[in-house]
């Protein structure tokens, strides 16, 4: 008989990245906003937004959203080893 620990059933661990690939722009921006709020509340300092390379449409929409988001202190394209053109690194405002 296997006993599963159900104490974690309703908690989501704060992870330092969110995957937006394969979502529509509208879906991705909703998920991004929710994620940034959750990351801020969890006290994260820096997070990675994984939007993929593709045509660049999603990357552009994500960065436009980041530019005006009140919880974002700064953001930058990821460098080699962080995900390159498919990732944006975000520094969150501190409480």
Describe the structure.
The protein is of the alpha+beta class and 95 residues long. The protein has one domain (17-92): Ribosomal Protein S8, Chain: A, domain 1 (2-Layer Sandwich), CATH 3.30.1370. It is built from 2 helices and 4 strands, in the order βαβαββ. A 4-stranded mixed beta sheet has the order 1-2-4-3, covered by helices on one side. Strand 1, helix 1 (25-41) and strand 2 form a beta-alpha-beta unit. The longest helix is centred in the middle third of the chain and has 17 residues, at 25-41.
Mind sketching the topology for me?
Layout (H helix, E strand, L loop, with lengths): L16 E3 L5 H17 L4 E5 L6 H12 L3 E6 L9 E6 L3
Parallel strand pairs: 1-2
Antiparallel strand pairs: 2-4, 3-4
Number of discrete domains: 1
Give the averaged pLDDT, no decimals: 88
Overall number of strands = 4
Portion in strands: 15-25%
By CATH reckoning, the class would read: Alpha Beta
Structure classification: alpha+beta
Keywords:
95 residues, alpha+beta, Ribosomal Protein S8, Chain: A, domain 1, 2 helices, 31% helix, disordered N terminus
Compose a concise summary of this entry.
The protein is α+β, with helices and mostly antiparallel strands. The chain has helices spanning 25-41, 57-68; strands at 17-19, 46-50, 72-77, 87-92. Helix content is 31%, strand content 21%.
């Amino acid at each position: 008989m296997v006993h599963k620990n159900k104490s974690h059933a309703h908690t989501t661990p704060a992870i330092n990245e969110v995957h937006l690939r394969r979502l529509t722009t509208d879906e991705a921006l909703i998920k991004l906003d929710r994620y940034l709020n959750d990351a801020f509340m969890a006290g994260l300092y820096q997070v990675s937004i994984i939007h993929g390379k593709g045509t660049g449409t999603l990357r552009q929409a994500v960065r436009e959203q980041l530019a005006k988001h009140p919880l974002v202190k700064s953001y930058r394209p990821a460098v080699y080893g962080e995900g390159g053109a498919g990732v944006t690194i975000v520094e969150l405002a501190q409480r």
